[in-house]
Amino acid sequence: MQKVNLDSAFDSFExxxxxxxxxxxxxxxxxLAKLEGEFVWHHxxxxxxxxxxxxxxxxxxxxxxxxDEDAAPSDDVTLEEGEMLVVPxxxxxxxxxxxxxxxxxxxxxxxxxxxGNVESEETExxxxxx
Length: 130
Ligand code: NI
Prior knowledge:
This protein is mainly β. The protein is built from one helix and eight strands, in the order H-E-E-E-E-E-E-E-E.
């Protein structure tokens, strides 16, 4: 049995937008990420994605991919420390941390890519373990 200390786990890396693998269960994973600035717009075809903000603040923006227009600001969700949100599969989204770095816990299938349907510089194929 091996416990995970979130303080130590978040202290063990500095790279932003590069999720680390903290635990796996039932083909799902708890991933830890440090986010700052804007990420790429993307969606996950087959996976719901949970964001839990541990430190800082994160806005999750939504838009209709068909129209390619940014959603109205009221459709965005801002997560404060201790708040979480599930983004359903197929929903186009973009995480934005514009108030400094946010520490975020993600829960989703292990193989889910951070950039979803988009292949970009930020795409991480193999996650390092913390
Ligand atoms: Ni996503």
